[in-house]
Design a protein that fits this description.
By secondary structure, this protein is α+β, with helices and mostly antiparallel strands. The protein is built from 5 helices and 5 strands.
């Protein structure tokens, strides 16, 4: 599950402006660490900044985000960390794209390239992560190959058949671990 990160800072206007400049520099340079603040972008998948005007010209800067774990081997800040998603995060996105794929084939339409591509990319990520159901990953990968072939062949009928097999495989796998 993604972790929540919060950083609450009380800064003067010039310090808040400096923070935003450093954040922009960090993003532009592709670094992971916002200099001197200890805010690690490598640990965040998404974030937001809220600045509240306070009394005496002091601003409360709330830097919040949701993150994923930094993979093993990522030891140095500033561009070297590899961010990986949790299995549950990948599965959640897969669920949305699988529903869109099944909705398309239920209407006897071809799913979009984006739907199939994202779903297959996430399936590839899923089978590379450790977690419950690893014994089913080989069979899932075979179904993904069949889905890719059916999509490339432009066969909504075959896509529908593979999607049904995938739904059964998913249901069986999830039933073992719930």
């Amino acid at each position: 599950m993604p972790s929540k990160k919060k950083y609450n800072l009380h800064l003067s206007r010039p310090e808040a402006a400096d923070l935003l400049r450093r954040l922009a520099d960090t993003l532009e340079a592709g670094c992971d660490e916002v200099a001197t603040l200890g805010v690690s972008l490598a640990e965040l998948a998404k974030f937001k900044i809220r600045i509240d005007l306070g009394q005496d010209d002091i601003l409360e800067v709330k830097f919040t985000g949701t993150g994923f774990t930094v993979c093993e081997g990522a030891q140095e800040p500033c561009g070297s960390g590899v961010v990986c998603e949790s299995l549950s995060g990948v599965k959640k996105r897969m669920q949305a794209f699988f529903k869109a794929l099944r909705d398309s084939v239920a209407k006897a339409e071809m799913p979009s390239q984006e739907i199939v591509s994202v779903f297959l990319a996430d399936s590839e990520k899923m089978v590379s992560l450790q977690g419950d159901g690893e014994e089913s990953y080989l069979a899932w990968s075979a179904l993904c190959c069949r889905l890719r072939e059916a999509f490339d062949a432009g066969s909504p009928t075959e896509i529908a058949a593979v999607a049904e097999e995938m739904a059964r495989a998913k249901k069986a796998c999830h039933a073992r671990y719930k």
